[in-house]
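**Sequence, structure tokens**
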Amino acid sequence: MTLLKRTKPYPITKRQVWDAFKQVQSNKGGPGIDGITVPTVGNAPKKYLYPVWNRLASGSYFPSAVRRKEIRKSDGKMRPLGIPTVTDRVAQMVIRNELEEIVEPQFHSSSFGYRPAKSAHQAIRQAQANCWKFRWVIDMDIKGFFDNIDHGLMMKAVKHVTQAKHILTYVKRWLKAPIQLEDGSQIANPVKGTPQGGVISPLLANIFLHFTFDKWMEREFPQLPFERYADDIIVHTWSKQEAVWVLERIKTRMLECKLTLHPTKTQIVHCPTARSKTPAGERRQFDFLGFTFCPRKVVTSSSKVTVGFLPAISAKSSKRICTQLKEMKINRWSNRSLLDISSILSPKIRGWLQYYGTISKHKLNTFFFRVNTRISKWAYRKFKRFKRTKSLYAAQRWLRGIAKRDPHLFPHWQAGYLP
């Protein structure tokens, strides 16, 4: 009962802090600017978590600077990630859990990103169903969304969903937390932006776009369906003319909310079927959540071949994963056995199968052929008999024999993608 006792101005209990830490612990993640890791906090909860509760509950909590880390995007550009300290992540999780309980029932049914009981697969399936009903799609990309969220408008949106003083206080402090660059210098963050990587950032992004886009679409274009996963947005329309008009209205709306659509990544796409051809000069494919939607052959239940507008793993996703495999340099692991390689690669392969294979098997043959080729190159380099023949084919044939005898060694072999 002492865990639930409230003796501070703000209604935050020790139990909330402990439960929040357990969630942070399960998410893992690296240390912030103080270098303190999740295991360190877990080994000394009285030292690290008690002060979090004490300061949160008394109103004296102020976040540390957020450590910025640059990661390379698929297009070669760098994306800045913000990594709060572990104790700051715990504090954010406490408020996020409380705020999520308030706003979750209010969110639009077509908002799928970073929500309990919602997933990317649901968004993709809904987009697929709508592409069969509607012939045109507006594929939108918000330019630097997380970096350009206006703090004033963000706080206005949060005030729409709650008047809880402690939530408003801490959200405002997190928005304005300084950022520590990789060279150790710090910059202020007084006006706009919420760091990608913060525990509460995805929820704040959803709240912001709930009012900026979801509610606005519901009010202005109730007849047009859409799918939104965080800041990835697809809108379906009946005609090209309607798509052009709706897109102009959305651009105006975004400018009103101090956001801008990316001029080259935002596009209008035609969704053809067997009975409708794409007009000359129009795009007929788009990418959404790692999948490419485009016309593909479909075999119906009556064994007839037709054309449907369907998703499959995108070339960009395939290239990104193959780049990761290349950087792992499996072919140089001559000191490791095939079992070692299986134990390292299998969790990754299982994740790729679950994400991409659940929606569509299209293009997976090509993708897993590349994975098998990487493993074959390892065999070619490891065993001298393949080197003597100077034949990668011999290594591939050897690997094929192992796959037939023991398909459970790799998840994609078990799924039928043999060498």
User: Anything to note?
Assistant: The first strand starts at residue 66 and ends at 72. Residues 338-359 form the longest helix (22 residues).
